[in-house]
Amino acid sequence: MKNKEYIQVLQKILQAMDEGIHVVDPDGNSIIYNRAMAQLEKMESQDVLRKPFAEVFKNMDESESTLMKAILHRKATLKKEQTYLNKDGKEITTVNTTFPMVVEGKLIAAIEIAKNITDIQKMSHTILELRKEIDCPEEAKELKIKKYNFDNLYGKNEKFSETVALAKKAAKSSASVLIFGETGTGKELIAQSIHFDSPRKHKPFLAQNCAALPANLLEGLLFGTAKGGFTGAVDRVGLFEQADGGTLLLDEINSMHYELQGKLLRVLQEDYIRTVGGTKDIPIDVRIIATINEPAEELIESGKFRKDLFYRLNIVPINIPPLRERRDDILLLTNRFMEKHNEKYGKQMWMLSEQAKEKLLDYDYPGNVRELENIIMGAISMAEDNEHVLMPEHLIINRRKSVAHQGIYEIQEGLDLYLEGIEREIIEHALVTEGGNISKAANRLKIKRQTLQHKIKKYKMNME
């Protein structure tokens, strides 16, 4: 393949990438500017290519440009957050990796790879501002924010009762708590119950899902940012300061970037924070409750969870049993959910038929208590106003067990139809577990929302 052909192939590859690619020559003239970068910066390729970088991006100081640093100082920049104005004056935020291309000691270009996080940045700022407004105890009373306590925990099962008893003891101290439980077992309910039964109950309770944001944004969200700390940074109070005196729940803490786990460990050891880009140490008094949904030993062995952070958090370990291990609570919880959703939907489903009881008891509930509630919520919401007995046909339950549990199935209808049946049941299960929310169900299934919508239409599923 000739050099010209190589270049044509490279250009096609770069144009197909989701990340923005911007390449400048040693004189600072743009020589590659792919479609994703053009969309990100709201620019036209012809307005950028073969023109000096400084002329096109007049709103950006050359000293703050990672591309110019690569050209002028041959300096690489890895995953740097950068906020700047495009040609229309609109603020955009990206995470950039930039590096000089040097061949035989000669600089031939500088390459920048950019990922647009503008919407995510706005979301994190909005979260902080909203929490700053509503999480003060005095204002929270007026807004009637939903709070959970031990009275909201239902169950007579021995294992579950032991869990609740341990949580009540934990509420009397300020020691760190690590809660382990599968998805849907009620980890946040336990965490809130501990806080609102503790001496800190009149102080803020804040929660952050560590899987919801990239590492750099999560760090700023937790510790706050200092103006001038990085390009576009402003003074912003983080969750630790907002939760001072109260409790901070770190959900799915094993999803936190490994390096950020180390910074969190130092905060827990020293009881002070330093804002991102700041130089001042800020003392804090925050109780940490963390949750994981996989066994700690497996997470540590796989490198997802720092061992030293585990030991620092695991002062009070609380394990929540899955619903399949507390089957004696299934009907108790069902009755509670029936009362709740009768009121919500204005229905009068007073009792369960014996067949409905059998159907509910003969299921493993991989989505745990949350899945059970979604099943009952679906049944109540779809029932007619004149129906008073919940029947098995009201209950949408994925009853197919895995091959590992049931052995190899006898396939009579042919492989294609059989596999379609499995796919339909899996989709139905995901939709029920997520309360009919297509976006959440798609995320659970790890497929695109449009793909799920296509399959719902294909299998003629009623989503009303």
Cα gyration radius (Å): 27 Å
The helix tally amounts to 21
Tell me the domain tally: 3
Please identify the structural class as seen in this structure. alpha/beta
> Which superfamily, in CATH terms, is the homologous superfamily of the largest domain?
P-loop containing nucleotide triphosphate hydrolases
Could you state the oligomeric state of the chains shown? single chain
Quick check: average pLDDT?
82
Strand content: 15-25%
What composes the largest sheet? 5 strands, antiparallel
Low-pLDDT runs: 133-145, 400-412
* CATH fold naming of the largest domain: Rossmann fold
Describe the model:
- The protein has 464 residues and is of the alpha/beta class.
- It has three domains: 3-116, Beta-Lactamase (2-Layer Sandwich), CATH 3.30.450.20; 120-321, 3-Layer(aba) Sandwich (Rossmann fold), CATH 3.40.50; 326-458, Orthogonal Bundle (Helicase, Ruva Protein, domain 3), CATH 1.10.8.
- It is built from 21 helices and 14 strands.
- It is globular and about 80 Å long.
- Mean pLDDT is 82; it is low at 133-145 and 400-412.
Detail the topology: elements first, then pairings.
Blueprint: H1 3-16, E1 20-24, E2 30-33, H2 35-41, H3 45-48, H4 53-56, H5 66-73, E3 77-85, E4 91-103, E5 106-116, H6 118-134, H7 137-143, H8 158-170, E6 177-180, H9 187-196, E7 205-209, H10 215-223, H11 239-242, E8 247-251, H12 258-270, E9 272-274, E10 281-283, E11 287-292, H13 296-301, H14 307-313, E12 316-319, H15 330-345, E13 351-352, H16 354-361, H17 368-382, E14 389-390, H18 403-406, H19 415-433, H20 438-445, H21 449-458
Parallel strand pairs: 6-11, 6-12, 7-8, 8-11, 13-14
Antiparallel strand pairs: 1-2, 1-5, 3-4, 4-5, 9-10
Helix pairs in contact: 8-9, 15-17, 19-20, 20-21
